[in-house]
Specification:
mainly alpha
């Protein structure tokens, strides 16, 4: 690696991008939602119950229907997850987290396309859906997002 003025200029630009990301509305909303989630006793209890149910299910999951009360344990896990997911603090945190991830994906795509349009950018979680209904890992939706903040 050759260290020259171009490298220092690139490093400075990277620091500027990080500063802009930290000052963005999406980051502010994420931090606020995280603070609310951490302060919510109800949410913590629901998360703890879900973790407990998840651990209990993981112990018998490998045995499938041969395990005693497999269906009951699985049902308990799904119910605990539903209760956790329906908590307002958890919901707001997940939405803020998702919105921040979309912004980061769009920034990564923009940086990659500035270098070359042939660079593929892995974006977000392949199993969650974006606002327009496509998997967030799809390259296609990144160009269709109109609500970006850069």
């Amino acid at each position: 690696m050759i260290i020259n003025e171009e490298l220092f200029a690139l490093e400075k630009k990277c620091e500027e991008v990080v500063t802009q990301i930290e000052a963005s509305q999406a980051m502010k909303e994420f931090k606020a939602a995280k603070k609310v989630l951490e302060a919510s006793k109800e949410a913590k209890e629901k998360i703890a119950l879900f973790q407990e149910a998840k651990e209990k299910f993981s112990q018998i999951e490998a045995y499938g229907t041969y395990a005693p009360d497999y269906e009951g344990t699985r049902r308990e896990l799904y119910q605990a997850k539903r209760v956790m997911d329906m908590d307002e603090a958890v919901y707001q945190y997940r939405m803020a987290e998702r919105n921040l991830q979309v912004q980061l994906d769009l920034i990564a795509k923009r940086i990659a396309s500035a270098v070359s349009n042939n660079i593929l950018v892995s974006a977000g979680d392949a199993f969650s859906l974006s606002v327009i209904g496509l998997p967030t890992a799809c390259e296609i939706h990144l160009g269709k997002r109109k609500d970006i903040e850069l």
